[in-house]
Every structure is written in C-alpha cells, then in structure tokens.
Design brief:
about 110 residues; two-stranded parallel ribbon; mainly alpha; single chain
Amino acid sequence: MGPGGYIRLFGNEEEKEVRKSRSRMGALVENAGFFPKMSVEKNLEYYRIQRGIPGKDLVEAVLHTVKLFEKRKVKCEKLSMGMKQRFGLALALLGAPELLVLDVNWTRVFDCI
C-alpha cells in the first residue's frame, strides 16, 4: 500500500484488490452525510443508486431495520440527533455489507436495535 504499512481486506493485500473489496464494506461515522432538504427515503435512494446497489425495495427494508420507516418522508434536517444516527446506520447497511465499521457514540445506535 503506502510507505507506512499495508492493509489486508478480505484476504487481499494488493491495492487494486483492496479497492474492489471496499464495496463489500459499510461504515458508520459520528456524523453521516446527507442532503438536509431531501427526505430520509430520497437520501437513501440517492446513495443506493450512486453506489450501484440493486433493488429499490432495499431502502424500505433498511428503514424498517433501523426503525425509521415512519420518518421516511421527513426532511433530514428535521431529524433528531438519534434519528440522524439511525439514518447513518441505514446508510451503512445499504447493500448488506459483509463488514460493518462503526465509529460512533453507541448510546444512540443501540436505541434503535
């Protein structure tokens, strides 16, 4: 990889293979990115399409998983901090990743499980 070390992801060390393997991951960071004026549902649909993830019904399923289905039509700017964390988790779960990296305050995430 770089001069400071290497990374192995799903058994791959070569840079090209590691880059490909990243599509098998999901990540949740403290502040998930979203378009504030778009609804929760539209944001997830946008990211699903951008990532090339098939299955339009996947967005609905993920919203049910994180208990945000009732808020799907709400603009993201109107969400509480806890709901924004759930949105971030939904975003990380799109595409059913094999590896999920979580870098968050767990208190809010566990509220939705």
